[in-house]
Specification:
Layout lengths: L2 E5 H8 L7 E3 L5 E3 L5 E5 L16 E2 L2 E6 L6 E8 L5 E8 L5 E6 L6 E2 L7 E6 L5 E9 L1 E8 L7 E2 L6 E7 L5 E8 L2 E8 L5 E6 L1 E5 L5 E8 L5 E12 L4 E12 L4 E8 L5 E8 L15 E6 L6 E2 L7 E8 L5 E7 L6 E7 L3
Parallel strand pairs: 5-26
Antiparallel strand pairs: 1-4, 2-3, 6-29, 7-8, 8-9, 9-10, 11-12, 12-13, 13-14, 15-16, 16-17, 17-18, 19-20, 20-21, 21-22, 23-24, 24-25, 25-26, 27-28, 28-29
Length: 356
């Protein structure tokens, strides 16, 4: 059995939350539970992992083609992957046995991975900038988690973006590369903020986790708690008013729930390149089951239209699949990158969604 000691804050993206924090106002004024963070030791089960059968809503089977394995490694956990806009490089978080999680980059179809971050601290959630020249990520290099940016070609030129006492994770770029949206743990509640990379001014968006900025800049998608026993995550969207002259953003209107978690939690949303669909992971049970060494981490990757209709299962299999990122390279090839144990260990895979 592989045992990896990491902060729960890192495991949030791979396994979901396993804590309930103070009561917070929900996106529509309701009260719900936030998530706490604490140090834990994660025990990954022996592979292959058992399949836990949990009822999920009826949905059409999505079509796909060209499923590919992009990382081939043993005794590690490869997560948080993103593809360079040029389509030739893969950046990801690698958790190695008895070592800190670090950011790696490699040729998309190559084997040699190059480490980008310092191994004496933990780093995670890398995202390429829209022009492909920079990588935003989170790291605890200074003690708590902050957002950083590094140039792809000169990763030693580290730029710290956030410097508050809060833990800040999971950055996502605005389409023009001038802003980042991220999560901050404030008084035990995960809140979303936007930071302008020129003025460094921040804008509060509201409670939520793992926001993803739509390619047209008009919305964000994120996961948020649906009250219940146990509480579960749902996928929500929020309109963003973006000023292209001042490069400032602010939330408008009320949040809209796109996918309601019922017998499962809907997690890790990612927009399609044309902003018409969202990919997400379905995790059976509430967040209290997500950390179980015998529970299914992620049942499958699903897609849904941005209006909440036509929900489809994309990767129907017995393997754990989660953490999707929908990308498109400069050739127009769209694919969903995700982590899966379909080969018996945790690696990065990609699949091209078909027309539905």
């Amino acid at each position: 059995m592989l045992r990896i000691s990491v902060l729960l804050i890192l495991v949030l993206v791979a396994f979901g939350c396993n804590g309930i924090g103070p009561i917070a106002n929900g996106p529509n004024g309701e009260t719900t539970n936030g998530a706490q963070t604490r140090a834990v030791e994660i025990a990954l089960p022996s592979l292959p992992l058992p399949l836990v059968e949990v009822p999920v809503p009826a949905a059409a089977a999505g079509t796909y083609r060209n499923i590919e394995q992009l990382s081939i490694a043993k005794d590690v956990l490869d997560i948080h992957a993103d593809v360079h806009p040029g389509g030739d490089q893969l950046v990801f978080t690698r958790i190695r046995k008895e070592r800190n999680p670090c950011i790696f980059v490699k040729p998309l179809h190559g084997l040699a991975a190059r480490i980008l971050t310092r191994p004496n601290s933990s780093s995670a959630w890398p995202r390429f900038s829209p022009d492909g020249k920079r990588i935003a990520f989170a790291s605890n290099i200074n003690g708590n988690w902050d957002i950083f940016i590094i140039p792809l070609q000169t990763p030693h030129a580290l730029e710290q973006v956030t410097m508050s006492a809060a833990n800040e994770i999971a950055p996502s770029w605005s389409p023009d590369g001038r802003n980042l949206i991220y999560c901050a743990l404030i008084n035990g509640i995960w809140e979303m903020k936007i930071v302008n990379l020129t003025s460094m001014n921040t804008t509060w968006i509201g409670p939520g986790l793992f926001p993803d900025w739509s390619p047209d800049g008009s919305k964000i998608a994120y996961q948020y708690v649906t009250p219940g026993t146990p509480p579960k995550y749902s996928i929500w969207t929020r309109d963003i008013d973006y000023n292209s002259q001042t490069h400032t953003a602010r939330p408008t209107g009320s949040p809209t729930r796109i996918v309601a978690g019922q017998e499962f939690s809907a997690c890790y949303p990612s927009w399609s390149p044309d902003a018409t669909k969202i990919a997400f992971s379905a995790v059976p049970g509430g967040w209290t089951k997500m950390m179980s060494a015998t529970a299914l981490v992620g049942r499958d990757i699903w897609t849904v239209k941005a209006d909440g209709t036509q929900m489809c299962i994309l990767t129907a299999s017995d393997a754990h699949s989660w953490d999707p990122v929908w990308t498109e390279d400069n050739t127009g090839r769209a694919r969903i990158i995700f982590t899966s144990a379909r080969d018996g260990t945790y690696n990065i895979w990609s699949v091209e969604p078909g027309a539905e």
